[in-house]
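Researcher: I'd like a candidate sequence for this fold, 268 residues long. If you have to choose between options at a position, lean toward the conservative one.
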């Protein structure tokens, strides 16, 4: 049997929807330096300005195939075959699915970066006011303190540049992002193109782990690192740093005490 206080704590842990969990797994399965097919085309045109349109498309297909090879199995299963039935150019459906993942990652990163800044400010304010407690993180990082960051932003809408490819026949790939706070004090985001899995969740819970750099859903509102193993590793490193500082201070104080005793004995 689980006692009531423990059950109450368990109930406070939120979970992502299956659709959001799958989307997060997909974007984390992309290579860290992954780019959309428009960027691939732009780079090929710069390197080979004399190529015709069809030749460029063939080169893009080759780059896309390599890019998919670097992605996770989940991403490859999601996008499907890299080339069309003729094996010459990119399969249109695969290209669209892959590019949407690139844009989705950018949308999630915008949320995660702002939430990370909000957490840092909340903890900094608490340190400045000297209100830290033994479990200060829980009290410092609250829904209210996170929303204060978002409400201080000059606008609630941005055109986020996913990739800057404005030369030649291509244009910058951008996504329009708009956010608002509903009656439940949840952060809701709408983007063009749209992602229902993101729009239906509380945007305050989208974070980026400072250790592995992966996107994750924060089950607890104060959580700043993905649960396992990064959160445990970061806690251990933080404890070791604090212990070393405390140990050095104790050594310094003991040395001063010995010096004081030695001086007293000599004068006595």
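Model: Candidate sequence:
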């Amino acid at each position: 049997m689980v006692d009531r206080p423990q059950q109450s704590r368990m109930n406070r842990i939120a979970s992502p929807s299956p659709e959001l969990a799958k989307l997060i797994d997909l974007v984390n399965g992309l290579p860290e330096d992954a780019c959309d097919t428009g960027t691939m085309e732009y780079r090929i045109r710069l390197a080979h300005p004399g190529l015709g349109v069809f030749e460029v498309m063939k080169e893009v297909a080759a780059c896309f195939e390599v890019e998919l090879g670097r992605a996770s199995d989940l991403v490859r299963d999601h996008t499907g075959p890299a080339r069309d039935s003729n094996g010459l150019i990119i399969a249109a459906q695969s290209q669209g699915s892959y590019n949407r993942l690139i844009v989705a990652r950018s949308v999630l990163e915008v949320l995660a970066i702002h939430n990370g800044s909000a957490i840092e400010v909340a903890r900094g304010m608490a340190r400045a006011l000297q209100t830290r407690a033994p479990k200060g993180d829980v009290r410092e990082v609250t829904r209210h303190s996170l929303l204060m960051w978002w409400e201080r932003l000059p606008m609630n809408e941005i055109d986020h540049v996913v990739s800057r490819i404005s030369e030649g026949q291509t244009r910058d790939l951008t996504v329009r992002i708009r956010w608002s706070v509903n009656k439940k004090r949840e952060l809701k985001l709408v983007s063009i193109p749209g992602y229902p899995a993101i729009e239906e969740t509380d945007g305050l819970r989208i974070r980026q782990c400072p250790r592995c750099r992966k996107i994750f859903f924060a089950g607890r509102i104060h959580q700043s690192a993905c649960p396992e193993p990064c959160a445990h590793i970061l806690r251990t490193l933080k404890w070791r740093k604090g212990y070393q500082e405390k140990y050095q201070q104790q050594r310094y104080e003991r040395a001063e005490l010995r010096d004081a005793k030695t001086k007293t004995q000599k004068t006595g």
